[in-house]
Amino acid sequence: MRTQDIQARGEAELYALDPDYVTQPEGRIAMTRTVFWSLVALRVYMVALIGLVLYRFTEYAQLVK
Amino acid sequence: MTLLDTARHVRPRRTSLLRFLAIIGPGIIVMTGDNDVGAFALYTSAGALYGFNLLWVMLPLLPITYFAQEMVVRLGCATGMGHAAMIFKRFGSFWGWFSLGDLMIVNFATIVTEFIGISAGLGFFGVPPWISVLLTIAFLFAMVSTGAYKRWENCALALVPLNFLVLPAVLALKPNYAAAASHYFRVTLPGGLNPDLVFLIIGLVGTTIAPWQIFFQQSAIADKQLRIRDIPMARLDLFVGNLVVQLGAFALIVLAAVLYFGTRTQLTEPIQIATDLVHRTGYAYGALYAVALVNAGLIGGVANSLANAWALGEVADVPSSLNRTFREAPLFYITYASCLAVAGAIVLIPHAPLELITTSVQALAAIILPVTIVFLNLLLNDRDLLGPVLVNKRWQNIVNWSMIVLLFGLSAILAAQTIAPNLFPKTGA
Description:
Chain A has 65 residues and is mostly helical. Chain A has one domain. Chain A is 60% helix and 0% strand. Chain A has 2 helices and no strands. The termini of chain A are far apart. Chain B is an all-alpha fold. Chain B has one domain (27-419): Amino acid/polyamine transporter I, CATH 1.20.1740.10. In chain B, helix 3 runs antiparallel to helix 13 and helix 13 crosses helix 16. The termini of chain B are far apart. The chains are: A mainly alpha (65), B mainly alpha (429).
């Protein structure tokens, strides 16, 4: 039986059993299309913002020189 | 047999304190590292510009920081793996490399700011910057090169009390404690929601909870080999750490408020407080403050460098542990040393825009933070990984998603203001 399949009634019972680390499940996390594309959108937004912040940084750095 | 093993094998009722002492470390160190040089800059700016009026911002940050890091505790104790490794395993290399890249860039920039603070702090005692940088690199490398996680942790825990060296100066200045305490519980927005105030509030949020904390704490928990049954004590460790941050932030805001708010003197950099304290209260108080600033840089520097070294080692699937020697984990130690060496070298570049680096780091961290917490929350909802007991409960998801929305909104405002400082018209403070 995998550690994560232990049917404890709560955290206290789980701790009392002193289980080992969980077994890594096969494959990747189940992700719906909505979650996937939301993450892609977040990533694009983030990269764009980081790019703009860095651009502004180099702009200032040149001014300082 | 280690203290941790001993604590696990004796009767629980008799060993609560012993178990806590054995487990204390990752939580309190990560939270003390939160009060780093960037935090010193922001907390003192908040006090100097707005007096006690922004103390209330710290109160909601107590549960926000706790809930975010508590997820890390559960994930680390259940899996025994670092955060970078978890993202690669459960989300794949596409998302994994992005997360690792974000972490490395922001952490590296943060380490530069730690060196800036350390150089300024040691400069108070007349130490030239190049000697400060060399001393810092030597000290921080010596800390990790003992070949034992526990020895490193003991060194880091010894630095934690130095965080409170600002308290003597606060006590000497005799602030109005009742007024400060009332502002901690009362929301005030002096001058309305003007851009400067919004920027400062976002900065306070961004510096109190940062992406490196998530990666650092989970890797530390894994390296310490905490297990599922250690979760309650690891939570307590985290909570104590949260109180340390709150007290440190409170002291810095009050200190700067008493020194500068309502006066003609402007606070331009954190170390200025040390020299002004010398004139107001005496050399000893200024010196203690300077030591506290150096200490903040040391804890921040070691934590951020370790977060990078652990993450890269986990992703490369090579040994990355403080329990290994240099020969056993070369990539881990080379990454750690490289972060320190390059960051130190940047600080020594003549005319390097150090103030700008500090500001940009805050902006970058604030942009990356919500995405990091989204991944963390998705992992904590992974029932196949954590099982029915440790997976997030409904109320936890409500709290966490509310936090993500709030952080996302704040990061968007911060990013907009960083890109276009004149986007919002000034209304005057």
